[in-house]
TrEMBL record, chains A, B:
This is Phenazine biosynthesis protein. It comes from the Eukaryota. One of its GO terms (molecular function) is isomerase activity. The lineage of its organism: Eukaryota, Fungi, Dikarya, Ascomycota, Saccharomycotina. One of its GO terms (biological process) is endoplasmic reticulum unfolded protein response. Transmembrane segments: none annotated.
Amino acid sequence: MSMNLPFLQVDVFTSIPFMGNPVAVVNCMNATDGIISDEQLQSIANWTNLSETTFLFKPSDEKCDYKVRIFTPASELPFAGHPTVGSARAYLKFTGKTKVKSLLQECELGIVNLSIADNGKISFRAPSVNIEEISHSAIDEYQQSLSIEHVATPKLLHVGPKWVVYLTSNADTCYNANPDFAGLAKVSKHYGHSGIILAGKKPGEGNEYEMRAFAPCEGVDEDPVCGSGSIALIGYLQDLYEVQETTEFKITQGGRVKRQGHISSRVVAEKDGELSFVSGGDSVIIIEGSITL
Amino acid sequence: MSMNLPFLQVDVFTSIPFMGNPVAVVNCMNATDGIISDEQLQSIANWTNLSETTFLFKPSDEKCDYKVRIFTPASELPFAGHPTVGSARAYLKFTGKTKVKSLLQECELGIVNLSIADNGKISFRAPSVNIEEISHSAIDEYQQSLSIEHVATPKLLHVGPKWVVYLTSNADTCYNANPDFAGLAKVSKHYGHSGIILAGKKPGEGNEYEMRAFAPCEGVDEDPVCGSGSIALIGYLQDLYEVQETTEFKITQGGRVKRQGHISSRVVAEKDGELSFVSGGDSVIIIEGSITL
């Protein structure tokens, strides 16, 4: 029996249509529990051909607004950045809620706090950020595939995906890099990393960075605009510069794949002395309709 | 100013949702002429991330039903197979026509004749099929990247895309092949070919073939179900076996990328003694709604 569910395809981290990162969102909140198999969810995500397709369900934890399940064409993810922003935007549209200022999203990695600014920008607080050293040989192998120098020791950031953050001398060097994707895929696969976040600072006093995200071993040579990558980058910069106060970062991404993404990120000094890591931005609903399963 | 246009995403060469090859179709037939720039069409196709996105316009030749423009994420194509079937299916849905038995589609390569069977299957007659020899060195290089033997001399089929057809000993050998995509991309690019159509005959008397389509130099390692590839294959088989009578071929494709595509192809001996090449199959409308430009 075929089933018809509400469907949105949202452009994330942009206010200009088609210049951000798309995510397909299927509203399963009114579907009978268990009527859609995991196999079906995976085959839908394989078919949309987007880096991520998400499915909204009723939360199992009643303090949450919804539960999201996030799929790449190949597998399910515990958490991802732009799909979180796009799913929140879709949740607001599906439910007709216009005055909400915060949301609690349930996902496999845990509960994610989201806030909605007056201008409509949606931000999420990273559910988990851990930093780890990587071996000299891994660094050398990455450097060979990237063919550019790093200006600080690359490290591994666990933020859901496992990104190696590789800081280069400036924004232009980052933008102009032509990595060997086959080589990168080999190195990432060997060490069990998701991929590389390449970044370079723009000139001037502000914390403005050009960023690129390469995950060829996951089948995505270059992700247009990457939310979890922005968290990895500010987690890395916090560690590198020992940032202890609330600090804003502006990240641009996507120019080399004909997008113009903007991510607003923030290291936040919480009242309890802990640090948290927040990223967000604009989003635009591009496709609105229904999907037949 | 934003614009809202009717949108469909159609699954082609399957009757089972998510098991075919998707194409996004935007109905621009009621949009003011010239209001959408070529740049916009290209950026939409870049964003959907599908192998093809098509746009339906009023025909410039009044005997045609519609004009289609076909875009990959990177460029415009003069003709393509599964986007033609999907666009025809979308045209029928957009216009509410249910009793039409034939359509004339205008596209960059020329006018394409389509027929709609009583069971809803849509077939197209290939606008152009030409066969050409390729060099021994090209054949050797392809063989190295495919790592399997051919059972007849591979040739180049111009059917819009330029496919090298590579016939192997049987369907299983075709299904199990693990080509070196980076190697294939290099060879195709060097010789200016779109990619490789790999095929192997199934056991038994019928003309049943397993087929795979590789176009890594166009950014598509493996196309799930390929209409123009099916035309290239039957063009090649017609030449190889000197087929002069109307002959049916059944082609299955997509198993290795988790699809189950079925293409019905036919070499047709026309009354004037000419041969024509026809392919078609089922299609399912999966996403229905609107797109905001």
